[in-house]
Amino acid sequence: MAAEQERLPVFVYGTLRPGQANHGRYLRGRTVAEEPARLRGAVLFEGPGYPYAVAEPGGEVRGELVRVAPGAYAAVLASLDELEGCAADGTGELYVRVVRPVLTEGAEGAVRAWVYLAAERTARRLRVSGTRVAGGSWPRA
């Protein structure tokens, strides 16, 4: 099955995290599991009210791995793509949806998951003039 068709869990690290505004709008009642997780090889930058994960060796982003209910999967992924400004193929101006390994607290090894990373143009700008989120967790405690 092609990556675009796979029903992978989604790693969330910003406004889609439990307790944040977009979790209620897009995910509440549509998931079967949510668990703490870490994305290695990325760092967080502040955005205008939300963060951007930017690929960077040695970095780590903290968030949750969300397993979407099977009957809601297509609609949830489409709505997340719209929220993040991505086309159905995962490409976008601000974010891109890509498959990355994510580590969960209890699992041995990594789980393949969809992750919304800053698109390359945005990532270049953030690396030069962005504000990094210390500790890799948003919102800041």
TrEMBL record:
SUPFAM superfamilies: Gamma-glutamyl cyclotransferase-like. It holds the Pfam family GGACT. It comes from the Bacteria. InterPro entries: AIG2-like_dom (IPR009288), GGCT-like (IPR013024), GGCT-like_sf (IPR036568). CDD domains: GGCT_like. Residues 10-138 form the Gamma-glutamylcyclotransferase AIG2-like domain. This is Gamma-glutamylcyclotransferase AIG2-like domain-containing protein. It comes from Streptosporangium nondiastaticum.
